[in-house]
Automatic annotation (TrEMBL):
This is Thermosome subunit. Keywords: ATP-binding, Chaperone, Nucleotide-binding. Residues 531-556 are annotated as: Disordered. The lineage of its organism: Archaea, Methanobacteriati, Methanobacteriota, Stenosarchaea group, Candidatus Methanofastidiosia. PROSITE patterns: TCP1_1 (PS00750), TCP1_2 (PS00751), TCP1_3 (PS00995).
């Protein structure tokens, strides 16, 4: 009688595994779904998304990075596409939707090749060749600019804001963003570098966007610690303290024994004298304003008020750093060490009431390397969208100033890239040629999506755009969404930093290649059920992508 052998399993019960073509299909689909989600937000005529989290908080935006960070995405391949948006946002500050849409299209084209029995490693290899060539082509189609080309830099900022909720205020916000970036830009070895963290954005409800302004200094979200202090100090000398204006407690457990009222009085007098000495030392340095990172004792507040010194306490460490950059002050760790040379200067320090909150305005700083932008707007949601648009504008201006290279927007760069990659593909022998051609065709998704979102006929538009790019000097031709024509985007003022395109193509191709190379997905038991992500008993449901209907396997 033949021996019955049990099939051997090396994984725990309930673990699931997808292999070969199934794993590839599932991962490609997950990536494409993420791209489809943000696709409709691309361009000036893109739509917005309303995202509601588990607590009921609402975010309304068409900023790709915000949408993907707010969405509750569980599928591992989809998360890799979200990483593309994160990288793009951190590196350039804009172009997140472009990067994700390109990644999704690269996966779609790869799937067509896989269906034709082209091996995944061949597709990945072809994509790698195409991505390297794309980098060369982009460098060739870029145009040089400098920090003094203000008109072009303003157009770059406006392009980044077009299509966002703050679009109607872009003529107000673009100059604010440009002036802020130019103020904090630092020149080293002939090149500019911009630390965008040095631009502090404070938003307050009330008024209109037109009331927003740039402060040559900082806005600190703190009020005076004592009503007896002056509300405004002109020609302020500012001390920054990283120590508490309080009597220090002993570091070890100590017991003080007092046996008579005289001793208690002497103890209290000694405490008072110590606090008075601290305030006297501050006064002796010549300081008229004190920003303290830690607490200020009630008695110390009284003495500071008597001395006519303006003081704010518990100022954030990040704000202290910015104050040092704006006023030229040095943060001091010990009051006894405070000297006149440690003080910073500002034209005025004043407590103002904005949107129902008392805030301290440090203004009139001489050549500050840290500034504040005060944003005003009617509602909280609108203000948040204005802030996102402004951050994109600051990001693209900074990138353009640092790199000194720009390119035409409106799908012009992508179409030129597609054309030149197609020509390059002809020179490649072997199956990689198919992947390079697929990569070239994938680039057309950007102008096509721009046309679709604007209600134009995508086929007619792409045909017209291709025809215009056949002429050698027409590399700047893209789609003018507002009149539906193909024209020179540079003249139309649709300009972007070249790094947006470089980074988008680089991160999109890297993530697509990584996803294509996966041929086996092994999931721990109960991955979907533990988190309540739904799915049948036998489904490997790693969560629907951001609350989209059904789990991944069900959508294949």
């Amino acid at each position: 009688m033949a021996e019955i052998r049990q099939p051997m399993s090396v994984q725990p019960e309930g673990a699931q595994r997808f292999m070969g073509r199934d794993a590839q299909r599932m991962n490609i689909l997950a990536g494409r779904i993420v791209a489809e989600t943000v696709k409709t937000t691309l361009g000036p005529r893109g739509m917005d998304k309303m995202l509601v989290d588990s607590l009921g908080d609402v975010v309304i935006t068409n900023d790709g990075a915000t949408i993907l960070s707010e969405m509750d995405i569980a599928h591992p391949a989809a998360k890799m596409i979200v990483e593309v948006a994160k990288t793009q946002d951190e590196e350039v500050g804009d172009g997140t939707t472009t990067a994700v849409v390109i990644a999704g299209e690269l996966l779609k084209k790869a799937e067509d090749l896989l269906d034709q029995d082209v091996h995944a490693t061949v597709v990945a290899s072809g994509y790698k060749i195409a991505a390297e060539k794309a980098e060369e082509i982009l460098k060739d189609i870029g145009d040089k600019i400098s920090i003094n080309d203000e008109e072009v830099l303003l157009e770059i900022a406006k392009t980044a804001m077009t299509g966002k909720g703050a679009e109607k205020a872009k003529d107000t916000l673009a100059p604010l963003a440009l002036n802020a970036v130019k103020q904090v830009a630092v020149k080293e070895n002939g090149k500019y570098s911009v630390e965008t963290d040095d631009i502090k954005v404070e938003k307050k409800e009330g008024g209109s966007v037109e009331d927003s302004k740039l402060i040559q200094g900082l806005i600190i979200d703190k009020e005076r610690v004592h009503d007896g202090m002056p509300k405004k100090i002109k020609d302020a000398k500012i001390a920054l303290l990283d120590c508490a204006l309080e009597v220090k407690e002993t570091e070890t457990d100590a017991e003080i024994r007092i046996t008579s009222p005289d001793q208690l009085q002497a103890f209290l007098d000694q405490e008072e004298a110590m606090l008075k000495k601290m305030v006297d030392q501050i006064k002796a340095s010549g300081a008229t304003v004190v920003f303290c990172q830690k607490g200020i004792d009630d008695l110390a507040q009284h003495y500071l008020a008597k001395s006519g010194i303006y003081a704010a306490r518990r100022v954030k460490k990040s704000d202290m750093k910015k104050l040092a950059k704006a006023t030229g002050a040095r943060v001091v760790n010990k009051v006894a060490d405070l000297e006149a040379k440690d003080l910073g200067h500002a034209g005025s320090v004043e407590e103002k009431k904005i949107g129902g909150d008392e805030m301290t305005f440090v203004e009139g700083c001489k050549d500050p390397k840290s500034v504040s932008l005060l944003l005003r707007g009617g509602t909280e949601h609108f203000l948040e969208e204005v802030e996102r648009a402004l951050e994109d504008a600051i990001g693209v201006i900074s990138t353009a100033i640092e790199d000194g290279t720009i390119c035409a927007g409106g799908g012009a760069a992508e179409m030129e890239l597609s054309k030149r990659l197609n020509e390059y593909a002809e020179k490649i022998s072997g199956r990689e040629q198919l992947a390079v051609k697929a990569f070239a065709q994938a680039m057309e998704i950007i102008p096509r999506t721009l046309a679709e979102n604007a209600g134009m006929d995508p086929i007619d538009t792409i045909v017209a755009l291709k025809a215009s790019h056949e002429t050698k000097d027409h590399k700047r031709f893209g789609i003018d969404i507002f009149d539906g024509k193909v024209k020179d985007m540079m003249k139309a003022g649709v300009v972007e930093p070249l790094r947006i395109k470089e980074q988008a193509v680089k991160s999109a191709s890297e993530s697509a290649i990584m996803i294509l190379r996966i041929d086996d997905v092994i999931a721990a038991s109960g991955i979907g059920k533990k988190k309540g992500m739904g799915g049948g008993d036998d489904d490997m449901d790693m969560g629907g992508s951001g609350g989209m209907p059904g789990g991944m396997p069900g959508m294949m």
